Fold:
Amino acid sequence: MTVIKINAITVPADSGDELAHRFAKRAGAVDGAEGFEGFELLKPTDGRDQWLVITRWRDEEAFQGWLSSPGFADGHRSAQERAGGDAPRPVSTHSEVWNYEIAGGSAPAPG
Ligand code: HEM
Structure:
């Protein structure tokens, strides 16, 4: 059963653009991870300072496998480091992982 793993990243308001910029230039290593079903980066529009990275996985094992894989580290190397430069300063001041499963929902009817 699909599991939802959310990385909630606290980012001061003036650093949000930089976080989005880093994601726009992300490594893309996660895209081929076993059991990866997709992610969205959600930007707050109501004055909150937590951005959410909502990831979906085939099961808990798939998520744990990615966490301990070289792909996790690769996916968290900035574009600057990948180009041979120094690591940029972190834009976040805190992050925490929230664990969810789908308990209900809906989608528009076809047609
Ligand atoms: C230690 C706390 C973490 C911080 C501060 C953080 C922050 C970031 C940042 C800034 C990026 C953009 C790439 C870069 O420039 O580094 C990124 C990529 C990403 N993060 Fe995290 N992250 C953390 C842990 C996690 C966790 C636990 C998850 C999953 C629940 C996650 C999911 C992702 C995904 C899917 C990408 C794209 C990777 C790729 O393209 O391969 N992150 N993260």
Remarks:
- The radius of gyration is 15 Å.
- The chain is about 25% helix and 30% strand.
- The longest strand covers residues 3-10.
